[in-house]
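Sat 14:20. Reprocessing the chain from the morning session after the first attempt stalled halfway. Input below, unchanged.
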Amino acid sequence: MSFPKPFYRWRPHPWHGIEIGENPPEIVNAYIEITPFDTVKYEVDKSTGYMHVDRPQRTSSHAPALYGFIPRTYCGDELGALNPHAGKGDGDPLDICVISERPITRGEVILRARGVGGIQGIDHGEADDKIIAVLKNDNVWGEIRDISELPEVLVERLKHYFLTYKMVPGEEESKFTISSVYGFEHAAKVIKASINDYIHVYGGE
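Finished this time. Tokens:
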């Protein structure tokens, strides 16, 4: 039996089987793992593509936006070179946070997202950037093009979440640090670098 090209007979792997997006680096697909309503950190298992429980959150902090990754990206050497405080990328797909006016309460969904900036993060000495995006057709945020157009408090919440989400009670400092917050111009370079890193590691089409 033959199937039309857009039809998947089997479930595609969220990292490797879903397209990057219609117009990267501006418009990308975001595969959502965590919503602002989750108290457990879910993460796609890299081997099977199914969601697994990474860890229950130890603190009361909730993700302030939808949180996942951009398919067919990889944080490797080219992305790491954009971060002067990291030796290399963390070896994961590129993380993305998507801001939406309407509550989206379930994970394992694909969003069309418009990148507007990002957070230059370092986790255990490795580059761990977080792209900040808005839902493409959002009625409130959809026309924003750069992080400078977002309310400052939204960016503050994202920074606070990432600075604290890996903290362990009894330890004074988080292993995750932030060196800068950047706009779309640099975010585009980060996304392009992660796409090139993916092609280098896994090949193209």
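The chain has one domain: 27-202.
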